[in-house]
Amino acid sequence: MIRDKVNLMRRYWLLYFFIAVFAVISIIFGIYPMISSFCYSFFKGSSVMSNPVFVGLDNYTKLIHDEYFWKSFRLTILFTVISVPMNIIVSMILAQLLDKVKRGQLFFKLAIFIPYITPDVVGSVVWKHVFNSQGAANSLLTALGFEPVGWLTTPETAFAVLAFVELWKHVGLYTIIIMTNYQLIDRTMYEAAMIDGASSWQEYFYITIPALKPAISLNTAYAIIQFLKTYTVSRIITFGGPNYSTNFLSYYAYSKYERMDFGSATAVATMLFILIVVITLLGGKLKRRGL
Amino acid sequence: MRKGLTLCIVLLLTAFSVFAGGASDAKGADGKTVITIWYEGNDSRLPFFKAAEAEMQKDYPDYSINAVTFDNATLVTRSLQAATATGGVDLIFNEASRLLTTYQQSGGAFEDLSDVLAASPNSETVTDADKKVCSSGDKLIVYPVNRSVNALGYKTDIIEVSEDQAPSTWEKFVELGKRYEEAGINGWTLHLGTDPKQAFNLFLTGGNGMTDLWLDTEANASKIDENKELFAQIIDLYTGQDAIWDPDAINEDFAAMYTKIQSGSVGMFRVGNWNVVGWDQPDSGVGEYVTTTWPSLDDSGKGGLLLGGVRGMAMPSNAPEKEAAKIFLQYCMTEAAQKASFDTMGSCMDYSVVDMDSLTENQKIFFDSDVTIYPADCYEGAFPYYPQLLEVFERGLTEAYSADGYDEVISILEKTDAAVNQVFAENN
After folding, report:
1. Which residue in A76, A232, A286, B13 has its CB near the most CB atoms, within 10 A?
2. What is the mean pLDDT of residues A227-245?
3. Class in CATH terms, A66-288
C-alpha cells in the first residue's frame, strides 16, 4: 500500500511539487500568522513587540465586559443575517433572468460579474462619493423632487448602504455559480412537469430549487464566511460610524491594532475566527441532516 | 525523481538568496558607513534627506544614508518591532506624536537627543513649544525637522467677505458659516471619522491659547468636565439646529476631507502650512481663499495659529550606527537641508532660509512673527497608557457628535469624564 503511494508520488511528482509550493506558502503566510495571532492574544497590549507580558485570558475577559465589543458582535451577526439571504435570493433571480436573455447575455454576465473582480477599495471609494450628502444619489432624489437623505450620516441608512454595496460587490459570483448549475438541470423534468399540469411556481419550487440545492448551500456557506468578515466597506466608507453603527468585528479589531493594542486586537480576531468556525460547522451539520 | 529534487533545491536556494539579499547591511558595498532611515510619506521627503546627506558628506565622505519609505501603519508597527527586537534602523522620520507613542509602547527604547540638538547649527530656531511636542518628560525623543502649523482658511469666491466679516471671533465665524450655507455650500468642515478631538485643539488652543484641554498632566485626572461647555459649543457646529459643519465629516479622514475642500464645496476649513503651496495653484480646485488666525472666543479677535505637531526623527537605542546617525541629525538643521524641507514639505524650523518675498499671500501668515503659534497638547509622552485614555475620550466624542441636542451632548461629556478618570484609577 505504501509502496503504491510512493510509486504514485513518483509518477506525479510535478503535481505534488506544485501543491507543495502552495502548501508551504499557506503555512508561512496563513497558518503561522494565525497561530501567532492566537498566541499574541494572551499578552498585554503592545508588549508583544517589546517585552511580552503574559496576561492569560485578561484580554478576553476585558472584551467580554466591553459593551463596544458586544455591539460590534451584534452588528456583525445582524449584517450577516440580512446580507446572506439577500445575496442568495438576488443571485437566484439574476441567474433566472440571465438564462432567459438571448441577445447580449455576455454583456449582462460581465456587468453583473465585474463588480466582483473590481478591487474592494476602488468600489468602496466610488460608492462613498455616490452616497455622500452631495453625491449622485441625493442629486437624483432632488432632481425627482424628493428631499435628500443622510445616507451615510444616520446609523440606519449607513448600515443599509453598506449592505447594498456588499450586495453589488458579491452577487456576481453567486449568480454565476447558480446560473452554471441552473443550466445543468435536466430540461426533460420541466417537460414532464408541464405535461402533468404543474404551474411555473410549482416547477420552480419542486424542480429548480431542489436541483440548485448544492449550489445554494455552497453560496450560503461562502456568503456567511464573507459577511462575517466584512471590513473594507466599513474602513473606507464609514470608519465604523456613524456612532459605531457599522463597527463590525473586523474593523473593531483593526481599531485596536491602530492603537497598538495588539493583544486586544488579536483577541477580537480570535473570537471572530471561533464564531466563523462554529457557524460553519453548524451549517455542515445541518446540511448532513438534509436541512 | 532526481530531476525534481534538483529543481526543488535550485528554487529554494534562489528564494533564500532573494530574502537574504534584502537584509540591510550597515556597511555599504563601497565600505561607507550607511545610516538607515525609515520614513513615512512618499518620495517628496527624499530631497530633504539627500540635501542633509550632501552637507554631511562634505565633512564625512565615508557616511551615506539609505532612506526607505513605508505607509504610516506599517512604519509604526515596524518601528516598534525594530526598537524592541529586530533592530536594523538608525532613524525614524514621522510626526512627533506617532514617534512618542512608539517610544511609550516600546518601554522607552529611544535615545535622548537633547545633546544632539544642542550641538546642532541653528538650534536656537527650535522653540520651547517645539520641544514640548517632541519630548517625553525632559527627554527630547524627536529631533525636530519641520513644523506642522494650522491656520483657518475661508473662501472668497463664493460670497464677498469684507475685513469686518472675516472670522476673527467665534460669533463672526458662525455668522460667516451660515452665509456659506445660504449660498449653497457647507459652512465649515474638519474630519470626524478619525481624530474627532482635533477641532478642540484648533479653536481652543489655536484661537485662544488654552492648554491641557482634556487631561491634567499634573493631577493625572480628566478636565473634560471643566471644559464641557466649550466642547459642547464646538460640537454644536455639527449637531445644532443651525449646523454649519459638513455632515459627511462624520465619515471622513483627512484624505477625504482634502477631497471635499478641493472640490470647492466648503466655505471654511483647516489649512496646514504643508497644504498651502498646492492649494494656491489655480487648478487645485480649492478656489480663491484667504488664510487667517483661529477665532477668539472673546471679542478681541486676537487668535493665533496652532502648532499641530512637529515632524522629526527619533533614534532607537539599538540603532546599529548610532554615532553616525547623531552626526547626520546635526546636518538636518543646516541651511541647505532646511531649505529642501521647506521646498518639499512646505515647512522648516529655520525660517531664515525662507525667501519671504516669494511667499504667496496665504503662506505669509505661517511666517509672520506677529502671529502667535500655540502648541497643541501633547500627551503621548506623558502617559504610557495614553492610547487607553484616547480610546475612551474618542468613544465619548463619537457619541457626542451623534447626540440630539445640547443637553445630551453635555450628559455624554460628563459620562466620558468619569470614564477617563476610571482609566487613570486603573493605571495609578
Report:
1. A76
2. 95
3. mainly alpha
